[in-house]
From TrEMBL:
The chain holds residues 267 to 559 of 559 of the full protein. This is ABC transporter. It is found in: Cell membrane. The chain crosses the membrane at residues 1-15. It is a multi-pass membrane protein. GO terms for biological process: intracellular iron ion homeostasis. GO terms for molecular function: ABC-type transporter activity; ATP binding; ATP hydrolysis activity. Its main location: membrane. Residues 54-288 form the ABC transporter domain. It comes from the Bacteria. GO terms for cellular component: plasma membrane. Keywords: ATP-binding, Membrane, Nucleotide-binding, Transmembrane, Transmembrane helix, Transport.
């Protein structure tokens, strides 16, 4: 009997591992929306690595239900700059990010990278050049080191350590008895939303993409966590073309340009102080979110 028990027990373990891996995949796809249905053109080229200029050129877009959700969005992110998109829920912020990642093609207009439409590039090379820091990061049931190294399979211990440092995780990791080898996920240490996002930033640092999409978490973070995220984002965005989908306006203060999207249209754009002085929609959003004095 015992001879049977051991292999069955092992099979149970393997089954749980496989189930977990599938659950992670399912969550990952939900997170990244639907899998691509777009086919590369035969003459498509590889997008060269490095920061690129991104232009949303008169973008109109409808999902499969045919209702247009973006109505002629015009938005340029010069190489290495950061543009933040703000606006109420359903305005179309995430849709812009999905189009840049080419999960869908616009119904009219084109997204251009270095002047060429996305369709000129192989999707694999486009996605290899875009780092996504999602709202809700999927962690594998493994060590912190493994979860960071996911950004670059085969990364050395030094590279992982350096990425953790740049993502402002070093202080947090130092306090853990097993440091980078601490188990996280469902069967390990539970991390806060802010800590998980910084792991995603560390992954992105290892991936070293020229472009970055940062989807800010909607859940409120404590002020220490929020500051750590902001500092990590500032560092990682410095030399990259960055699109920030912002929910809390504290994230956007330093952006090169802030774009206010309402019902799929840009209604205001500029830097934080100019938009505040304008006294329009941005100022209204800011006053709604401003912490009480
Ligand atoms: P939030 O701040 O709540 O994340 P958002 O500004 O990112 O909102 P989007 O998610 O881009 O808004 O949605 C824009 C519009 O597109 C909304 O009206 C939404 O209902 C619709 N939409 C989003 N995803 C789909 C989809 N897969 N199919 C059909 N409509 C969708």
């Amino acid at each position: 009997m015992i001879q049977l028990f051991v292999p069955l027990n092992f099979l149970g373990f393997v089954y749980r591992e496989i189930k977990q891996a599938l659950a992670n995949m399912a969550r990952m796809f939900a997170l990244l929306d639907e899998p691509a249905r777009i086919v590369d053109k035969p003459q498509a080229q590889d997008l060269p690595a490095g920061p690129a200029t991104v232009l949303f050129d008169n973008i109109h877009f409808a999902y499969r239900d045919g209702r247009e959700v973006l109505h002629g969005v015009e938005l340029s992110i010069p190489a290495g700059h950061t543009v933040a998109v703000v606006g109420s829920s359903g305005a179309g912020k995430s849709t812009l990010a999905r189009l840049l990642f080419r999960f869908y093609d616009p119904t009219h207009g084109a997204i251009r990278i270095n002047g060429e439409p996305l369709s000129a590039y192989r999707q694999q090379s486009l996605r290899a050049n875009i780092g996504v820091v999602p709202q809700d990061t999927v962690l594998f049931n493994d060590t912190i080191a493994y979860n960071i190294a996911y950004g670059k399979p085969g990364a050395s211990a030094e590279e992982i350590q350096q990425a953790a440092k740049l993502a402002h995780l070093a202080g947090f990791i130092e306090q853990l008895p097993d440091g980078l080898n601490t188990q996280v996920g469902e069967r390990g240490l539970k991390l806060s939303g802010g800590e998980k996002q910084r792991i995603a930033i560390a992954r992105t640092i290892l991936k070293n993409p020229g472009m970055l999409i940062f989807d800010e978490a909607t859940a409120s973070l404590d002020s220490v966590s929020e500051r750590a995220i902001l500092n990590a984002l500032k560092d990682v965005a410095q030399s990259r073309t960055t699109l920030v989908i912002a929910h809390r306006l504290s994230t956007v203060i330093d952006a090169d340009e802030i774009v206010v999207l309402e019902d799929g249209r840009i209604v205001e754009r500029g830097r934080h102080s100019a938009l505040l002085a304008l006294g329009g929609r941005y100022a209204e959003l800011w006053n709604l979110q401003k912490p009480a004095d």
